[in-house]
Amino acid sequence: MTLLRRLWPHDVYVRRMPDTGVASYAQVVTTEGAKQHIHIAGTLPFDINHNLIGVDDMTTQVRCVLANIDSSLREVGATRTNVARTKTYVTDAETYLRSGHDEYLHFFEGNLPASTTVVVAGLMHPQALVEIEAYAVM
Known about the structure:
This protein is an alpha+beta fold and about 140 residues long. The protein has one domain: CATH 3.30.1330.40. Helices cover about 25% and strands about 30% of the residues. It has a four-stranded mixed beta sheet, with helices on one face. Helix 1 runs parallel beside helix 3. The longest helix is centred in the middle third of the chain and has 18 residues.
């Protein structure tokens, strides 16, 4: 059995959501006993037919991306609690923090991975607002 521990060192800042005070991510995630490492490619808000979901709607796009990541995890027998790290690419940080990050927090239900969020000029689809990579262990 793999054990993931999520830590916030006492002498390092904890980034919290302004409205709720909830931590936005785990600063450190350690794993013990991992036998399988799972790398999920940058995931865009597409349906199975490669149609963009949620044009101009950050909340819908984040939900779609996370649903696709959830499907990828299930394909290998993992769950969102196995996710140790994410990398999120957004085209607008303010919109993501206002309309998308709560979806991310809800998705992980308190089992926050270590996380990096990067603002980019654009993504591979001109109307995509968000792309997320995920790394999990089992």
